[in-house]
Amino acid sequence: MLDHLDALEGRTIYILREAFCRVAPLALLWSVGKDSNALLWMCRKAFFGRVPFPVVQLDTGMELDEVYRFRDSAADAWSLDLRIEACPPEGAVDPALPPAARAAARKTAGLRSLIGREGYRGVLLGIRRDEQAVRAKERVFSPRGPEGGWAFRDQPPEFWDQYKTEVPEAAHLRIHPLLDWSELDIWRYTRREGIPVVPPYLARDGRRYRSLGERNITHPIASTAATIDEIIAELEATRVPERAGRAMDHEAEDAFERLRADGYM
Amino acid sequence: MSDPVARPPLRLVFVGHVDHGKSTLIGRLLHDTGSLPEGKLDEIRAVSARRGMPLEWSFVLDAFQAERDQAVTIDVTEIRFHTARRDYVIVDAPGHREFLRNTISGAAAADAAVLMVDAAEGLREQTRRHAYLLHLLGIAQVVVAVNKMDLVGRDPDRFRAVAEQAGRHLERLGIRPVAIVPVVAREGENLATPSQSMPWYGGELLVEALDRLAPPVPATTRPLRLPVQDVYKLGDKRVLVGRIESGLLRIGDELLFSPSGRRAQVASIESWGADPPPAEAVAGQSVGITLDRPIFVERGDIASDTAHPPDLASQFRLRLFWLAEAPLRLGQLLKLRRATSELVVTVEAIESVIDNETLAAAPAEMVGRDETAVVRLRARGLLAFDPVERDPAMARCALIDGYDTVGGGVIVSDAGRHGGATSLFTVEHLLTVEARAARNGHRGAVIWLTGLSGAGKSTLAMQAERELFARGYSVYVLDGDNVRRGLNADLGFGASDRAENIRRVGEVAGLFADAGTVVITAFISPYRADRDRARRVCPGLFHEVHVAANIETCERRDPKGLYRRARAGELADFTGISAPYEAPAAPELTIDTGTQPVEASVDELVRYIVDRTRLAAG
User: Number of folded domains in chain A?
Assistant: First the structure.
């Protein structure tokens, strides 16, 4: 009988293959964090070593240096078709947003221009339901209008692994193969599979990043977890939410909802 | 959480009438089991205060601003909690009219349900509708929470009356409640801690009842079902990929592919990064396998073991729920998806629409939004399936109309065919080629086989026809036998009559193709000019296939003794002996029937036809 991680992996690979079979052109959005690294790992399993679509990093220029180093070495080692998409400057996004949300909105704008230019009909993303209450309401195959907006009041039914794979011209699908995974599942899978870890996740001098984002809007947490085993032990005991260090989530009650409705990941 | 990796969380769906307190109960349950993240309670307190409300537990789940402002849940959400015994994923769905469309998304795969009933109001229309949905989805484990006991003075008699009403309704649906618990969700009474105000209740707490729910039975105990998801070419290997829905699979197992009926052995289980490579795979795993024979397999085929194949039928009964604004009508055309299979189906009969209040079933002309019904569908071609009683994974379908999922349901076993059902088809006045192709699920084509007598044209045509028919194709073979009998009964075997024979075949084949059929012609048709004329009848749909075997091979085979008779001078103008064969200069396909086995040739032809008649994606 399968254990829980095997079952999760089986479903994620099923979703990846379904996306590859039915949606083209397709790209994967790689934040170089633990979730999209695990997702890439499962892409390699699904397609027997080769990732058969472009892997895009939305770059604000504000990631940690170690993230860039990891990106370049993994892209090389895993033979990825890496595309780096420079996000527009902060001046180009909605000035009504709170400051940290503005920084996040740069990625939304970058994603919108990427999809508009490349004509992607499907974008694979490593978000999870347990990260954030608004993400908890997502579908695995989530249709978006031409502007990338999320019509959360009018989501299509999705059941029994039958996914919406057809959308009208100029619309696209956000595809979320990791929705069912929890933060702990990801770390346990990372440990089991030996997936390389971006160093800032591991504690140094009493601090580590639990969620990786831009330098200017993400804060490390107090932690002594310097190995994956220790991270897992820490998470089993904690009741602090994962995105507590993400400034953009906490500026206003509906900050994250507004970001997502506008097309944020 | 002794060994959390090994145990998946239990999926619980919370259902019940709007305002009976689902979200409140969930919020409070998370708090009382210590499952709320740090800071969440303060956040909810602040959000409630901002709206001038007392602490509103439902805000834990209602994440959207609009949900909090209107105090309703807009869309289904999932949230985790844990007890000392295990982890749970809660699916919370809105109770209002949009319920079905939203709930189905999270509830369809639930292991168990909590049905909320307001102590003061008792069962309401939505309570009954939701209970029926649990039955439809096959969710047999239900815990009933009788909420808002404070509004009825925590009266034991009122509790017993509501409990009896709920229990009776569920039992009529074949559901025996695991427990019925009186609770005050807002105050946390009888959730994780006993109520001090209801000393008369000696039963289980809600979490105790939840902890007693049985985990899902692993699908590994059922016969193998591997729906083929895709076929990858890796170097010179053809790897079939898919997720094993039921059973298990080992290297060397003999597989039966339905509906084609092809068989082959598992040669290898492919994997990336596994050392040593696996020799076995089980339900829930997404795998890749190679076969020992180069048979034609495509997405939608179902691999099983040879002793326990799925059923094959082009007509079946579906117990369905309907989600679309416009009602489902008799004669309607829909796309049915089940696992990786996709078929065009026609609604042949609406046997009954179920009244949620009385559970009475009555025949009807249409099925309205949010209604449930039993319908009979007719598919183009055969579907390999199991009725829900045997294997739910192979019975669960979604119905698609255009871009949208408009319904879903489970295939139920057939209690016998109904005769005389009236079919009312809407008729389009201007039928386009696209409309015909959409109905058939493929484009029309003329597959013109040409080659020497004995090259294998008829064998190839007949076997390809059978295979395509099983795949749901509208397909027909034209050969000397059926054409000479009527259409060309006036023609002899002189040179000009033979040319006229081929001309008429070309015209008829063109009409078939225009009508949307794949027509395979099996005539020697030795002259280039005759074949070119046939091509001109339907230029875009014509495919010339050279069935190539050399004269020595054909003469050696001589299945009808014709070569022997030609050599003896009994047959005049016999192609290859006493008359020329003009081989095609640039055929769309050449099949070498001289050296390769028949099976490989049939595969080559079927694959070609499937590829060339495929509808454009989208």
Answer: 1
Q: What's the mean pLDDT in B448-473?
A: 93
Q: Is A43 inside a domain boundary? A: yes
Q: What angle do CA B256, B340, A45 make, to 5 degrees?
A: 90
**Residue A203 scores a pLDDT above 60:** yes
Instruction: Please tell me which residue of chain A has the smallest CA distance to B243.
Output: A14
Q: How does DSSP classify residue B109?
A: T
Query: Does a structural domain hold residue A78?
Result: yes
> In terms of pLDDT, which residue wins out, B52 or B353?
B353
**Cβ partners under 8 Å of residue A41, min gap 6:** A193, A195
Structure tokens at B509: 């084949």
**Which tokens in the block code for residue A170?**
């100029």
Residues above pLDDT 70, as percent of chain B: 91
Q: Greater confidence, B217 or A1?
A: B217
Residue B303 is which amino acid? Answer: A
Q: State the CATH number of the domain containing residue A134.
A: 3.40.50.620
Please tell me the distance from the alpha carbon of residue B61 to that of residue B81, in angstroms, as a whole number.
12
* B102, closest residue in chain A (CA to CA): A157
Q: Check: CB of residue B391 under 8 Å from CB of residue B400.
A: no
With contact defined as beta carbons under 8 Å apart, do B229 and B278 qualify? no
Q: What is the pLDDT of residues A68-112, one digit of tens each?
A: 999 999 999 999 999 999 998 888 787 787 777 887 888 888 999
- Which one of A2-6, B42-46, B606-610 scores highest in mean pLDDT? B606-610
Confidence of residue B149 (pLDDT cuts 50, 70, 90): very high
Residue B408 with chain A: CB contacts under 8 Å: 157, 159-160, 162
Range 172-211 of B in CB contact (< 8 A) with A: none
Q: At what angle do helices B495-514 and B528-537 cross, to 10 degrees?
A: 30
CB contact set of A153 (below 8 Å; sequence gap of 6+): B66, B74, B75
- Compute the mean pLDDT over every residue in chain B, rounded to the nearest whole number: 87
Question: Does A164 sit within 8 Å of B403, measured CB to CB?
Answer: yes
The answer to whether residue B438 scores a pLDDT higher than 80 is no
Question: Residue B509 pairs with which residues in a beta bridge?
Answer: none
Which phi and psi angles does B397 have, rounded to 5°? -120, 155
B63 → closest Cβ in A7, A48, A137: A137
Query: Does the pLDDT of residue B321 top 80, yes or no?
Result: yes
User: What residues contact B328, with CB distance under 8 A and at least 6 apart?
Assistant: B320, B322, B347, B350, B366, B367, B373, B375, B406, B407
Q: Do A137 and B7 touch (CB under 8 A)?
A: no
On whether residue A11 sits in a domain, the answer given is yes
Q: Please give the ipTM for the structure prediction.
A: 0.93
CA B20 from centre of chain: 35
Looking at the predicted structure, is the pLDDT value of residue B170 above 60? yes
On whether any CB of chain B is under 8 Å from the CB of A254, the answer is: yes
User: Looking at the complex, does the CB of residue A52 fall below 8 Å from at least one CB of chain B?
Assistant: no
Of A4, A48, A241, the CB nearest to B5: A4
- Which A residues 96-125 touch B at CB under 8 Å? none
DSSP SS3 for A69: helix
Element containing residue B29 per DSSP (H, E): helix B22-32
Nearest CA in chain A to B393: A160
Q: Which domain holds residue A89?
A: 4-181
Report the distance separating Cα B521 and Cα B447, nearest Å. 6
In this complex, the residue of A10, A160, A193 whose CB is nearest that of residue B108 is A160
Tokens 């397999």: give the residue: B297
Residue B563 is given by DSSP the state: H
Which of B5, B65, B403 lies closest to A257 in CB terms?
B65
Q: Does B5 touch chain A (CB under 8 A)?
A: yes
- Assess if residue A231 is contained within a domain: no
